Amino acid sequence: MNQVNARHEIIREWRSLPKELRQTDEQAAAFAMQIKDKYKFSSDSADRYQTVKDWLLRYLSITRGLERNAEGEGKMSGDEKSTDPGLSAAERKTLRSREAEEAVAEHESAQKAFHENRERLREERLRRETAAGPILYPAPELPDDTPVENVRFATRIRKTLHAAGMKTIGDVREVSDAALLSLPDFGSGSLSYLREALGLPSTDGVRPKIKKPT
């Protein structure tokens, strides 16, 4: 679960408590300790309790500020929404302000989670590429045991070779022209390119393209 959803669920459970049980920082800290392991989420801090506690204290601070602004305009329990019937204009205004604060906080948290996830995916991709070895350009000098996935072929060609079960450059060199041409979306142009790039003349009449002198 990402931080945005975890925070939303934790705040929702906090708001579901009786009002007298969610008034003080101490109550927020106790609730954070109680619920910190219920929702699994990624966090910059190794201390999940501190992360949840910070969420609750921030929410409590916002609620207190809004309630102070609403003094003299009628007291609210903290459970109302601006769309609830029976509210005065002043109460609706106060609730909209509170909901806007919550929306901003959730947006900031979502943006942070998005960037963290993008960075995590980038690091995972780099680790996979490092483990797989360097990406090589196709050349006649490539050893036969070079994995096809480590060679910079066009995506269409790589996918076609992979689907046909060819895992190494040696597999590609050994297969006949007829077998290659029978593969889906693999024509004489692709065949000619492979034969030229990997340094193996065609055996079935398809010749590598001859480069024009410049």
Question: What keyword list fits this structure?
Answer:
214 residues, mainly alpha, DNA polymerase, domain 1, 2 domains, 8 helices, elongated, disordered C terminus, RNA polymerase, alpha chain C terminal domain, DNA-directed RNA polymerase activity, DNA binding, RNAP_asu_C
Report on this model:
The chain has 214 residues and is mainly α. The protein folds into two domains: 3-132, no CATH class; 134-214, DNA polymerase, domain 1, CATH 1.10.150. The protein has eight helices and no strands. It starts with a helix and ends in a 16-residue tail after the last helix. Residues 72-76 and 205-214 have low confidence and may be disordered. Residues 145-198 form the RNA polymerase alpha subunit C-terminal domain. It comes from Bradyrhizobium lablabi. This is RNA polymerase, alpha chain C terminal domain. InterPro entries: RNAP_asu_C (IPR011260).
Main sheet specs: none
Which structural category fits the helices and strands?
mainly alpha
What is the tally of beta strands? 0
Number of domains: 2
Helix tally equals 8
| Binned strand content | under 5%
Helix content: 55-70%
Give the overall pLDDT as a whole number: 77
Poorly predicted runs are 72-76, 205-214
For the terminal residues, how far apart are their CA atoms?
A: 59 Å
- Rounded to an integer in angstroms, the radius of gyration calculated over CA atoms is 31 Å
Secondary-structure element order, N to C: HHHHHHHH
Organism: Bradyrhizobium lablabi
Domain RNA polymerase alpha subunit C-terminal: 145-198
Biased composition (Basic and acidic residues): 69-83, 90-119
Protein name: RNA polymerase, alpha chain C terminal domain
